[in-house]
Amino acid sequence: MQLEIITPEMNVFSGEAEAVQFPGLDGSFQVLTNHSAIISALSKGEVKVNLTKAFEGTDGASELIQLDKSDNKVIRIDIKGGVMEMLNNKVIVLAE
Length: 96
Prior knowledge:
CATH topology: ATP Synthase, domain 1
Number of domains: 1
Shape: globular
Radius of gyration: 12 Å
């Protein structure tokens, strides 16, 4: 699935993911490829992304992305809240 994580200041991440775990208002939840359509508010916490291939870095936002030391296909991004939408295998996260 295609994933985009955007803040008011920049595009933090754009790429292909197999699974994404979010900090929801009522607890964490995960979406996988071909998940049904969903919109959810997000709380402060960490977005964990399981990529389809090894992380190669991004322009400008690399300081916000933490690479998992044990798996170069997993990245973590801290957010202060926001909203996510998944529709037709595309996830858009508007984060603070």
